[in-house]
Amino acid sequence: MSDDAADVQRVLAGDVDAYAALVDRYYDRCARFAIRMLGNRDDAEDALQATFLRAYKALNRYQERDRFSAWLYRILVNQCRSIAARRAHRDKVFVREEALLLNAPDRAVVWTGEDEEFVQRVLSELDPLLREAFLLKYIEELSYEEMSALTGVGVSALKMRVKRACDRLRERWERIKND
Amino acid sequence: MIDSERHPYVEYIAREARRPVVIDPAAARERIMAAVRAEPLPRRRSVFWEHIVAPRSFTLSPVASSLIAAGLIGIGVLAGALASNGSNRDGRPPAGQGDPVALGLPVSDTVVRFVFVAPNAGKVSLVGDFNDWDETRAPMIRADKDGRWSVTLPLSIGRHQYAYVVDGTWHADPSAPMTGDGFGHMNSVKVVNKGSTL
What is the pLDDT of residues A64-77, one digit of tens each? Predict the structure, then answer.
């Protein structure tokens, strides 16, 4: 039995704290995808919170024949999609709160590397479906079969999305070079 | 002609994007586990039970929810009276009245994030009709050094009243609509619609 399966069994047997081990094991990787996909920490934290909570509530429906990581990722990808889709509505609601927090310094200081903000901006210029496919392929380094299982999209369509994402990035580089 | 997928610029972007991110993991994990502990334990179900409790797609009005809650509370009281002892099977404190999660009522998938600015506070918690105004059930975590406190939790669809308890003193949320609490103070109001967020 894998560590994941053992932890799931412990949770189902009543040991809630065993879930913390699963959160610890997958949080960083999920956080990276959520931030790259959504472009900011607040949305990413919401996606992560909702993902781990949903996974916990659905844990008794998790099938051990599936890899826990793939199952969790499927939930994460869906959460990121719905948060991105609701972003326009949420931005309106947040106007009041932002006014209240005007005295708070910019939370974007969490970026760690010098190129971090630049890379995030480049990724945010990609269409969300292309960005999702690019991240799953080149950042999470999944196979097309794994990506297909996660997203419900066919392998050939995913290959096309990844290729288009790379084409867009390359076109961006060409524009910069020519300026 | 280099294939786009092997272009140095694309490889550079991918390499940089693979770097780990910093997202204050300790506090974030604490929030996740606080929300998880507020949920009933997931248990293995029989096929029959799976069918009985399978989610159905319908929406209850707050009034209907209250009526069902009242009915379930009645059932709970009756069951409690018939039981040989009153302790919960999982050893958790008894569910409070009106708590849809504890009562097993349908809840929305809406996860609501509450943020309150209190730079000088030592302890902040969220209280509301969703947690029986119990300041021990939704402690807020200091999100950063600048005095932002936050907690994220799932709420049922409907109208909720809430307030923040800052070092023992209750405060309404200045960024939300308010209503009287019937005792001379004000509470804040959050309306959760299907798919809404704060």
Answer: 666 888 889 989 99
